[in-house]
Amino acid sequence: MGVLKEHRQKGLTLLPNFLTTLSLFCGFYGMVSAIKGDFIISAWAIIGAACFDGLDGRVARLTRTTSKFGVEYDSLSDLVAFGVAPGILAYLWGLQGFGRLGWLAAFLYVATTALRLARFNAISHSGTGQSRYFLGLPCPSAAGIVSTAVLFSHHLGIEGQFSHVTFLTLVYILSFLMISNVRYYSFKDVKWFEAHPFSSIVTLILFLMVVATEPRVTLFILGILYGISGPMAIIYRSIFATKAKVKEDEEHYNI
């Protein structure tokens, strides 16, 4: 019985690492596809890597098989799948026409991804991180925006100089957001789904239907909305903080 339990535990331990390996494979395949000029396949491969990356951590927590090795392996995989792969895709698809400015943008994206992951690991190891929020734009989200931008442009047939200038700007903005102090909601402690299981299923089905209508458009829009949610939250909080300060001053001075 003890041997069977030990084999079962080993199998559960391997599962998160297997999902991480699948994420790494998708990232590598995304690089190969981009080099071959198959940019659409490359973009979908990176999105696939993000899906597997979202599963490995959750599976590890559900099966209680989290380990330091798994955390480090996941970070190395993330650097390839969400740093190098989208950096190569971005450069070969829309940045190489800008010469030095283009490859510097691609390098900056890879470098900020590495810095983002290093800071995330440092915060996680220190135990000072907040599970509700990410500090800086998560690199899978940034990679998803890069990939869906390629898919979105191809779907609308707007590939060209104008779209590539916009894309260059987008890459620089994403690089900045990843290493910024802007907070992004992590969706790790959403209690509504646990409290309303039936409504959650219906909501999930409706969400999948919306995404499936035209994923190249809906995924890009969702990515952009999440990308701007952090800065918009700062603006929202500053406005209400200013209003609260004005109201406090008015009450203090009886204005």
From TrEMBL:
Catalytically driven reaction(s): a CDP-1,2-diacyl-sn-glycerol + L-serine = a 1,2-diacyl-sn-glycero-3-phospho-L-serine + CMP + H(+)
Biological process annotations from GO: phospholipid biosynthetic process
Any one Gene Ontology cellular component term annotated for this protein: membrane
TM annotation in the entry: 12-32, 38-55, 76-95, 101-121, 133-156, 162-180, 192-211, 217-236
Primary site of residence: membrane
Topological type in the membrane: Multi-pass membrane protein
PROSITE patterns in UniProt: CDP_ALCOHOL_P_TRANSF (PS00379)
Catalytic activity, EC: 2.7.8.8
Matching InterPro entries: CDP-alcohol_PTase-I, CDP-diaglyc--ser_O-PTrfase, CDP-OH_P_trans, CDP-OH_PTrfase_TM_dom, CDP_ALCOHOL_P_TRANSF_CS
A GO term, aspect molecular function: CDP-diacylglycerol-serine O-phosphatidyltransferase activity
Keywords in alphabetical order: Lipid biosynthesis, Lipid metabolism, Membrane, Phospholipid biosynthesis, Phospholipid metabolism, Transferase, Transmembrane, Transmembrane helix
Compartmental location: Endomembrane system
Listed Pfam families: CDP-OH_P_transf
Similarity comment text for this entry: Belongs to the CDP-alcohol phosphatidyltransferase class-I family.
Protein name per UniProt: CDP-diacylglycerol--serine O-phosphatidyltransferase
Organism: Dissulfuribacter thermophilus
Taxonomic lineage: Bacteria, Pseudomonadati, Thermodesulfobacteriota, Dissulfuribacteria, Dissulfuribacterales
